[in-house]
Amino acid sequence: MHESPSLSILIPTWNEESWIAPCIRTIRASLDASDLAGEIIVCDGGSSDETEHRAHRAGVDMFVRSERPGRPRQLNRGVRKSKGECLVFLHADALVHPEWFEALASALRVGHVGGWSHVDIVPEHGGRASWFGLPTINWGMDLRTRLFHTATSDQGIFMRREAFEAIGGVPELPIMEGYALVDRLREVGSTALLEPRLRISGRRWECGGVVRTTMAMQVIRAGFALDVDPR
Question: Do 55 and 23 meet the contact criterion of CB atoms below 8 Å apart?
């Protein structure tokens, strides 16, 4: 049996005091339950709230600061401080189960260079839009992921360190960096789609409105596909 690789779990944050502690605690509990070795690194972009304090209280291994926000900048800085053989990128509103980490380790053992997963979008604030709109969003994301074998940055993207180095790190883009990262990752080897779901908050759809937020995302995605300058 191949030994499971050590993991570096990197979480980009900017004023995430509400979510960072539950995120870290579920990661730690899931690593322990899966019998996997891993370090948790928060990559902060200059939070002005209690993010750092709550991250330390929750047991983060390292808190890395950037001078200004920007997920690519924050993550690339965190990677330079990390030690794991596999890099895992999670948003602060992600809640991980042990089965997710076990599937990730299994994908790496069979030779995949990395991958991502389906998500389960859960309501945060409640309301009609959350309960009726979010299942539709979830279904659409599942379909897009299966048909086009692509992902966005909140789908738990992971990869071997050598694959990360081969593609030059997280692309320095103001938006769509996860989409671009996945495109580059597919060019260097076989990628896996994990069946265990990663739970994420539906807060952005709740705050911006399900229809309006979805339409905005589709316009951005179309622009990116047409090589419109992301800035």
Answer: no
DSSP conformational letter for 145 = H
Rounded Cα–Cα distance for residues 51 and 19 (Å): 9
**Other residues' Cβ atoms within 10 Å of the Cβ of residue 148:** 9
Q: How many Å apart are CA 106 and CA 120, to the nearest integer?
A: 21
Q: What are the φ/ψ torsions at residue 26 (nearest 5 degrees)?
A: -70, -35
Other C-beta atoms closer than 10 Å to the C-beta of 72 total 19
Residue-wise pLDDT tens digits, 89-146 = 999 999 999 999 999 999 999 999 999 999 999 887 665 555 568 888 888 889 989 9
User: Do residues 41 and 78 touch, judged by C-beta distance below 8 A?
Assistant: yes
| Block residue for tokens 């939070």 | 47
Name residue 86's amino acid: C
Smallest CA-to-CA distance from 142 within 220, 104, 197, 215 is with 197
Q: What are phi and psi of 75, to 5 degrees?
A: -70, -45
CB 93 within 8 A of CB 19: yes
Beta bridge partners of 200: 94, 121
Q: Do residues 84 and 4 touch, judged by C-beta distance below 8 A?
A: no
Give the list of residues 6+ apart from residue 206 with CB closer than 8 angstroms, or none: 123, 124, 125, 127, 129, 130
Read off the pLDDT of residues 174-184 as tens digits, 9 standing for 90 and up.
889 999 999 99
